[in-house]
Amino acid sequence: MNGFPPAHSALQDRLQYQFAQPQLLARALTHRSFSADHNERLEFLGDSVLNLAVAALLYDRLKALPEGDLSRVRANLVKQDTLHQLAAGLGLSDVLRLGEGEARSGGSKRPSILADALEAVIGAVHLDAGYGAAEALVHRLFKDVEINPQMKAVARDPKTELQEWLQGRKMKLPVYHVVGTLGAAHKQTFDVECEIPELGASERGIGASRRAGEQAAAAAMLLALKAKGHS
């Protein structure tokens, strides 16, 4: 016996990665509505690993593209819609562990939950075997995703726009913190703070997922910067 339920073994086959620590995969697939031992910390870790792995991929593939355009292409690849499609292709919806209310409300198909779970799986691989294994997983996931310089023309989301504004002024990237969560586990909203330490500025936003909260906070920060005369 390998210690994995059949569904988890099948998922590992699709990931082309076998976990040495079964509990990490189980946690990555556990929503906060199901258990206190849920996947949000793994998601936080996986988000950073994903961004670094995709950045390295783009640096190698798009050698002529400048920094700002690379950032925009990366934003297209790590956005919720893309991650949701990849998660659905892996069949994550069939193996997620959700609380009864979340399951009844269709949580297993919700894009934000699936995207977060995929990031958590990436974070779990990183803890299980190190960055190299996690980076290899990310590269496999994006193997069939079209990557080309034209992606830079796609409309920018607030986080990308704020990042480019700061990079253009040689300033450090903003820091995002989840200040709190509101509501029942299956209908939560996330209160997120966006902070720019170099400017002594912070703004907050609320969204139905951590990612949506970050976008709302970034949008609020952009409005505040424009109101203060920054352009």
Write the layout of secondary structure elements.
Blueprint: H1 6-15, H2 22-28, H3 40-61, H4 67-78, H5 80-90, H6 100-104, H7 111-129, H8 131-141, H9 158-168, E1 175-182, E2 189-196, E3 201-207, H10 210-227
Antiparallel strand pairs: 1-2, 2-3
Helix pairs in contact: 2-7, 3-4, 3-7, 3-8, 4-9, 5-7, 7-8, 9-10
Write a structural description.
- The protein is mainly alpha-helical and 231 residues long.
- The chain has two domains: 1-153, Ribonuclease III domain (Ribonuclease iii, N-terminal Endonuclease Domain, Chain A, Orthogonal Bundle); 155-231, Double Stranded RNA Binding Domain, CATH 3.30.160.20.
- It has helices at 6-15, 22-28, 40-61, 67-78, 80-90, 100-104, 111-129, 131-141, 158-168, 210-227, and strands at 175-182, 189-196, 201-207.
- A three-stranded antiparallel beta sheet has the order 1-2-3.
- A hairpin with a 6-residue loop joins strand 1 (175-182) and strand 2 (189-196).
- The N and C termini lie far apart (61 Å).
- The mean pLDDT is 88.
Proper CATH architecture of the largest domain: Orthogonal Bundle
Q: Assign the CATH superfamily of the largest domain.
A: Ribonuclease III domain
Strand content: 5-15%
Any idea of the CATH topology of the largest domain? Ribonuclease iii, N-terminal Endonuclease Domain, Chain A
Largest sheet: 3 strands, antiparallel
In DSSP terms, counting alpha (H) and pi (I) runs of 4 or more, how many helices? 10
The helix/strand class is mainly alpha
